[in-house]
Amino acid sequence: MAAVNPELPAASGVRSYVFTLARELVSLGAQVSVLGYGHKGLDGAAFEFVSVADYVTTAPQYTLALARFVKNNRDLDGLVHANRPDDLLPFHLAAPNVQTIVTLHGVHGIHVRAKRGRLAATAYQLAERYSLHRARAILCVSPNTLAYFTSKYPNVTRRLRIVPAGVDMDLFRIRSRKDARAMFQLPEGGKVVAFVGRFEPEKNPELVAKEFLWLSERHADAYLVMVGAGRLMSEIRSLVHSLGERIIIFEPMAQENLAWLLSAVDVLVIGSWTEGLPTIAIEALASGIPLVATSVGILPMLVKNGMNGFLAEGSQHLGTLMEKALYDVDWSSEGCRASVAMFGWDRIAPAILEVYREILA
């Protein structure tokens, strides 16, 4: 379960994780229901979609909607898999027969404090502590995430394990760059950098745009495509205005379209100051596209300099590395793709299903 709406595309790794995992689990014989929000599920999906609210705009609203759902369905049993610890609160408080598991996609408390302030962060930390001490298993998408929560909650160490997010290797694959650029009307001979993610402070879209400004002054054929939405949209649009058509903004798009867009670019850039395992990173590599990224989360283990991308030791060097990646290296698409073969859902989904079986045994 997660606060995801099948009708609304979003630049969200969690959204991709939830729907793709559900599909993969069904293919392995599991019976799956996804608890989200909205008016309808995905067309043709093999799993059941259960809406707990018509519309939500914040994480606390989704948690409250879950509380109402649990209140109206007190005979729930089985297993609930959440993607935020606080979403498990209604089940821990009112549905004692339900076994719970949570995937930690990073250190979410940092984002809560940055977005909503100290009081909200304190409330989140209390909910996080309460739920993590009651969850049967806690999946961490990266070693950094595991280390953080091992240190913070030593009493739950035995329930922590690393299970990374997966990538749909069939959807995200090497495609014709010429055809992909034609789809998005991108210049066939240009050098194109992409940023895909929420326009929020922790993702650093402003830094990416500013570093690209430096690059664009040195190279007239360089373009930046930004896909996302969020609180920093007005700031991003102001930066875009100064460059005209050299920076192109797209609203969040469906996964099928995103797969084609990744095939249309030369490099994916990640400027985040905190991450666990950014799904877009493994989706880009699976598409044969190298990364230029800050050294956060699992990326230092994933990115091999000069082979499938470059890591910036300091965030201010992104522009230099973008230039190097675009103009100095002849990348191997097959090599980039091979570097994330271990993240294919054909490997990750069975590992998660085995955790379910252990809990329910």
Task: Explain the overall architecture.
The chain is an alpha/beta fold. The chain has 2 domains: about 15-165 and about 345-360, Glycogen Phosphorylase B (Rossmann fold, 3-Layer(aba) Sandwich), CATH 3.40.50; about 175-340, Glycogen Phosphorylase B (Rossmann fold), CATH 3.40.50.2000. The chain is about 45% helix and about 15% strand. The protein has helices at about 15-25, 60-70, 90-95, 110-115, 120-130, 145-150, 175-185, 205-220, 235-240, 255-265, 280-285, 300, 320-325, 335-340, 345-360; strands at about 35, 50, 80, 100-105, 135-140, 160, 190-195, 220-225, 245-250, 265-270, 290-295, 310. It has a 6-stranded parallel sheet with strand order 9-8-7-10-11-12, sandwiched between helices. It has a 4-stranded parallel sheet with strand order 3-4-5-6, sandwiched between helices. The chain has a two-stranded parallel ribbon with strand order 1-2. The protein is globular.
Spell out the blueprint of helices and strands.
Layout: H1 13-27, E1 33-36, E2 48-51, H2 59-72, E3 78-82, H3 89-94, E4 98-104, H4 108-116, H5 118-132, E5 137-140, H6 143-152, E6 160-162, H7 177-184, E7 191-196, H8 205-218, E8 222-227, H9 233-241, E9 247-250, H10 255-264, E10 267-270, H11 279-286, E11 291-294, H12 299-302, E12 309-312, H13 318-327, H14 333-338, H15 345-360
Parallel strand pairs: 1-2, 3-4, 4-5, 5-6, 7-8, 7-10, 8-9, 10-11, 11-12
Helix pairs in contact: 1-15, 4-5, 7-10, 8-9, 8-13
Properties at a glance:
43% helix, alpha/beta, 361 residues, Rossmann fold, four-stranded parallel sheet, globular, 2 domains, six-stranded parallel sheet
